[in-house]
Amino acid sequence: MKLNKELLKGSTGTMILTLLGRRNMYGYELIKELEKSSGGMFSLKEGTLYPILHGMEAERWVEAYWEEAQGRQRKYYRITEAGKRRLQEKTAEWKQFRDAVDLVLGEGKA
């Protein structure tokens, strides 16, 4: 089943911060890890990912650095302390939202 892209919009940043909270990654690696971690449900294009990462850099939630890997320079991203705080906030917000939707759908506990 294909998901409506509008559902993905509000949670993409949180998922990216979550992945970077696990380990530092370069862009293409983030795309592949998101796809793998979601069982193939979420697949981002580079044209979607990089504007999100650049916005996160501007907010100081992530920072980029260059590192040589397999003989070539790659731009890696890591979560910052501010990014970790933002992730905590967004995760709590997501859980509250998910619980409320589950209640409406009859899936949650009242």
UniProtKB/TrEMBL annotation:
Pfam families named among the record's database cross-references: PadR
Presence of the UniProt keyword Acetylation in the record: no
Domain Transcription regulator PadR N-terminal: 16-89
Keywords of this entry: DNA-binding
Protein name in the entry: DNA-binding protein
Domain of life: Bacteria
Organism of derivation: Paenibacillus elgii
Source taxonomy: Bacteria, Bacillati, Bacillota, Bacilli, Bacillales
Gene3D superfamilies: Winged helix-like DNA-binding domain superfamily/Winged helix DNA-binding domain
